[in-house]
Amino acid sequence: MIFTGIEILFFTLGLLTALFIVALVKYNKELNFDKWSWITLITGGSLALFCIAWSVSSVLEGVPRASSMGMVVFGIPSIVLLLLGRRMAIKKK
Amino acid sequence: MEKKELDKSNALNRRNFLKLGAAGAALGAVTIPSKARENLANKIDEKTAGDFIKTHDDFPYEVRDDYQPHSNKDIVFSGAFWGFHPEEDIKQSGRAFSAKTYMHFEEKKGFDQLAKALNAGAWSLHNAVTPMSSQGISQEGIFKWEQSRKKEGEFRPNHDWINEHQYQFNNKKEAADCIKRAARLYGADLVGITHRDKRWDYRDFIDPHAIMEGRKEDAVYGWERFPFEPKSVIVMAFEMDYEGIATAPTDVEGAAAGTMYSQMTKVAYQLSIFLKQLGYQAVPCGNDTGLSIPYVIAAGLGEGSRMGNLITYKYGPRVRLAKVYTDFDFVEYDKPIEFGAMEFCKNCMRCAEACPGKAISFDKEPTFEPTYEGANWYNAKGVKKYYMDAKKCFHTWGEFGTDCGSCMASCPYNKPDFWHHRLVDKITAAMPGPVHDFMREMDIAFGYGDVDNPEKIDRFFNPKGRSYNGK
Ligand code: SF4
Ligand code: SF4
Q1: Number of structural domains in chain B
Q2: DSSP conformation letters of B258-317
Q3: Ligand 2 atom nearest B440 alpha carbon
């Protein structure tokens, strides 16, 4: 294998980050986010990316419990924040 | 610091990827040229490590004025095997340990013939060439003190003699860099250099061969037999296999430890030959001749801990230690470091809970004296630290017939080299004490550090189990 699991993970995270930024810019043009929408969406998105990074890394190191805990501790708040940010952005419109 | 040098060795290693991420350079991972990426990663590493790793000019723990160098007679092995203390229980532990080392128990996973054979192979080089150095005995086999010089024209089938020409380095940093590079080439994972400090040398030495041969008058000797005045001590740490140590307290764990005893025997000897061929005197040592822990702390390899072992920044307590005494002193010395491990120990106590022998202190704060009940001749008193009851520990070794290691396996600092553990370490170091309680609980909740778990043995032997390095 040319790339290790962790290298592929961080490459993928780079792509996901880029997609997330593109999506934010696109929807901002449409919905014109206010300060709180920006903060909530960016925090939620960062936490979601961190959750992916943590959980996949834990699987790679062979500690599945750390992976599932990561999904609970970082994943659930990230989904809540993203949904909240989405709602705030749409409501504003 | 050696650790940083190691990190810089691979532009695309796991930590560097994190740093790229931290810089918001996820896109950069695709587009920045590798040299620029390496420089950026190194800058961020220096910045973040610099914030959390403090250096000290002096030995970082208080040492009382009445501190006395420890006697080689007053270590648990000397009491157990060579009769320097009359206590029957410690001799009994020694007999049990010796007997069970050679027995296997097919019904006990991790203590069966497979595990015992693994352990025997691991220790074999150490046992063949420096048999008792792990028990603190000096001058064993190739760890001999003798310094010889080759006569003009004499043929020697080795290089174990001092070159008449002394190599001169351009400056002290170059000397330190070359010595550390040599040690790493031979197989050390961390290297540091410190002044020789008589406080950490054994006050006297025991000679088990004299005892076995009935020469009682030679059973104890002093520094007058040491062939030169040491000026520097080069210390090395050797990373033990993560999945091996995770099987504690079994013989598979013993094999992980023994593998590094064999490795450190080889490397310390090789480094001593390197110094001799540079024209300087050198004596390689394992656990013998001086106390390794204060020497490695002084040389900046890590911090002390509740369990009594060194905690390194990179590998936590999962290391074995060796040292080389030399008269070479034109060298840049390292400084002690602090990254929050001793502070974390105040709230953690996981090793004390995991210890099957109840040998590790639950005291909140370090002390100058042991606080456990009963005899304590085997502790070097007068240093502010946590004192563990080595006699209870050795009794547990006698019950298992191997060297346990549950304390190391349970420690939150014992993690594979993954970016998220580095991140947690840094957050931990930056946080005040009460947060450490929370971090400790999270470490348990996330499933790290459980011991006495037979599944870990399956995982050790499973070829697919060795994925912790991200491959
Ligand atoms: S090696 Fe085992 S018995 Fe000894 S201190 Fe560590 S956990 Fe306790
Ligand atoms: S387990 Fe906890 S208390 Fe024990 S040495 Fe490690 S950090 Fe310190």
Answers
A1: 2
A2: HHHHHHHHHHHHHHHHHHHHTT--EEEESSSSB-HHHHHHHTTSEE--TTSS-EETTTBT
A3: 2
